[in-house]
Amino acid sequence: MNNNFFKGIEQKTGVNMKDVFELANSMQNANFKDEATVRGLVKRVAKLANRNVPQELEDKIVNTLINGDKPVDMGTISKMLNEKKK
Fold first, then answer.
1. What are the b/e assignments for 40-71, b being 16+ CB within 10 Å?
2. Half-sphere exposure of 57 (CA within 13 A, CB side)
3. CA–CA separation, 71 vs 77, rounded Å?
4. In the 3-class helix/strand/coil scheme, how is 25-76 assigned residue by residue?
5. pTM score > 0.90 for this model?
6. What share of the chain is helix, strand, coil (3-state, %, to 5)?
7. Helix (H) or strand (E) holding 5
8. Inter-residue contact 42 to 63 (CB < 8 Å)
9. Per-residue pLDDT tens over the stretch 16-56
């Protein structure tokens, strides 16, 4: 893809594509059964999305990803960050 495409995404979202690619690369060989690894990924995605994640929600996301059947990827984590606290 060309640079203009990514620059357009950056302008619309305010998210630096370099940061997204670095996060994606770090996820390729990550141990998603390790709580510290998953917690770190949740924090990085929250920071990229400019979202404040309360500890209770972070715990819920981490436990769901470590113990659940959901695939661990940026999309899954992002969706969970956007869920309202129940």
1. ebbebbbebbeeebeeebbebbbebbeeeeee
2. 17
3. 9
4. HHHHCCCCCCHHHHHHHHHHHHHHCCCCCCHHHHHHHHHHHHHCCCCCCHHH
5. no
6. 70, 0, 30
7. helix 3-13
8. no
9. 888 888 888 888 888 888 999 989 988 988 888 888 889 99
Q: Are 18 and 48 in contact (CB under 8 A)?
A: no
Give, in order, the Cα–Cα distances in Å from 5 to each of 11, 12, 22, 63.
10, 11, 18, 36
Which pLDDT score is estimated for 86? Answer: 45
Residue in the block written with tokens 């630096």: 16
pLDDT digits (tens, 9 = 90+) for 54-82: 999 999 889 888 887 766 666 777 777 77
Residue pair 18/25 in contact by the 8 Å Cβ criterion = no
Alpha carbons 38 and 30: distance in angstroms, whole number? 8
Rounded distance, CA 86 to CA 84, Å? 6
